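Subject: Protein record for review, amino acid sequence with C-alpha cells
Why sent: The fold of this protein is of interest and is recorded here as C-alpha cells.
Enclosed: The protein record, placed directly beneath this head.
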Amino acid sequence: MPREVVTVIHRLSGWKLLAWLATSGPPALELDEWPSASDSHTNIVAGYVYGDGRSVVARLPQAEVELEAFEAPSTPPPFLAPAADRAPAEPEYTLVTPDGRHVEAKFIGVDSSTGLAMLEAGEPLLKGEPEGDQGDTDDPMVGQRVRLYAPIPAEAPAAPAAPNAPPAPPPNASYIYLSIDQKEGRLTHLVRAPSGRLSSVVVSADVSPEWVGAVAANELGEVVGIVSQSRDGETRVVPMTTVREACARVLKLRGTVPQPWLGARGDAAAQAPLYKWKDFGWPQEFARSFIVKSQGILLDSVAPGTPAALAGLRAGDLITSVGPRAVRNNEDLSMTLKEAGVGTVVDFTVWRAATPEPLKVSVELKGVKNPAQATAEAERSALRASLLGSQREIREMRAAERRLRGQSAEAQARAGELTLIAQRIAAAEERSKRLREQFEQAQQQLVFSQKGAQVLLGPQALAGPEARARDIAVTTRLRTYGLHAIGLSSRSAAPLGAQGGLLVVAVQPESPAAASGLLPGDLIETVNGSPLWRFELRRLTTEPDAEPAVLGLIRGRERLNVNFPPAPAPERQR
C-alpha cells in the first residue's frame, strides 16, 4: 500500500449532527428525542497525503461537505451543550496513518468541479521529508493492473496470547475497528477532454458504490487517482493531474472553489429526436446533417439571467465548438468549460435554424457551487414571474368584463366585445394552467438538484407515515429558500417552551432565509398567527402567488416575528 494513503474519520455530533439530519435525512423527519452526547454520525473514507505532508485530499459525501458552508450557532442551546464533567468531545476530523498514529485535522475547502475536499493535519503525517508528487503518476496505461485501497470495518482484536502483552481494548460502541482493504482491477481505457488532456481513468473492478473515495495505485505503488464513481463493474478515477489542480485551487482560496456555470440544458445532437429539431424550426435535412455527424449539443432551454442568456444563446441553438475544440456531447462541453475556468470568456460556435452560417457567441462564465441548482433557481424565478403576470392579466380582463356587464342597455349592443373578452380570458387561463404545471416541474427540478444521501434513523426518531406525507412538501421545499429544518414533536419541543414546531438548524448565507433574519436555533412555532405551521408552510412553498408569511419564532425563550418571502430572490450573478 502506498505510504501516502491514510484513513479519514469524520464524526458529526451535537448541533452538526442535527444539521446533517436536516440536510441529508428523510424530508419528513420529525425529532422526538434530542441526540445525546454519545450520538454521532461517523463516515470513514480513504485520504491521500498531498504535497507538504500535512495536506490531505479526500472525497467526502456531498451532504457532509455542504455542512461546512452553513452557519452553525455560536452557542448551542443548553440542552445540547456538553456537561462540565463530560469527557472532551471527539475531534470532527481524525486522520489515522499506516503506522497507527491518530492526528487531528481541520477542513480547508472543497473543489466543486471534482468534489474533492482538502483537510489540513495538525502535524506532519509521513516520516521523513515530504515527497511532493513523487509518489504518484501522470502516465497511467491501458492494461495496467490497479489496486484500490479503502478503509473497511474490522473485527475487534483478539485477546493477547502472551501473558505480559498489553490488553486489547474492550469491544464496545465507543471503539471503531478498521483495516485497509484492497481490490484489484485493470485499467480499461482513458477518457480525454476535447483538449486532449486526461479527464478520467476507467478501471474494471468488482467493487460496490461504497468504494467511492478509494485511492487507486498501480503495481509500482504509484497513486493513479481517487475513485469518483463505481457502478456496474466500472470504476471511474480522477487522475492525479486533476487532483493536484483541484488541491492547488482550494489551497489558494483556503475555501470552497466554485465551478463554471453556463445556465442552459441540452442534448447531444445524435440523441435529440428529429421532432425536437422541427419544433425549434430546423429544416429536416439541415438537422439530419448534424445528427449523422454527431456534431454539437442542441439546447432545450436557456434560463433567463444566466451567463448563456446574457450572451444571447437561446433554446434551439446548436453549440458545435468552444473555441477551437469541437463538442459532441454534454461531457465534452462540461470538461471544456471546467478547463476554461470561472471568470473566463469563451467563444462558442453556434448554428441556428434560420441562419445559413454559424454565429460566434462569447460567454463569460460565472462561478457557482452547484450549476444544476443555479439553473433550476433561475428557471423557477422566471416561470414565477410569467405566472404572476398571467394571473394579473386574467384579473384585469375579468374586471373589464364586469364593468361592461354592469352598464345599461347600451352595453347589450356590445355583446360581441363581451364574447371577445371571454375568449381572451379562456386563452389566458389555459396559458396560466400550463405555466403553473411548468412552475411545479421547475420546483421539483430544484429539489432534485439539491438532493443528498438519504438516511434512515431509528423508529423513535420518526413520526408516523401520515406525518411524513404531510411534511414532505414542507421541509424539502424549504431547502430551496436556504432553510434546513427539522420538525419537533411536543416532547422534543418542550425544552424550548413550545408545543411543537420547526427547528431551524442551518441557514445558507445570502439565501432568502438568511435575508429574512432567521438564525440556527430558531423554532418556527406559528405561520401567519396559526399554529398549523405545516399547512401554512405547505401553501407557502407550493403557491407561486403566495404573499410573504409572518413566522412566529421562539429565540432563546423569547417570542418574535419575522417576515418570510414567498419565493427565493432572483438568481444572483457571481
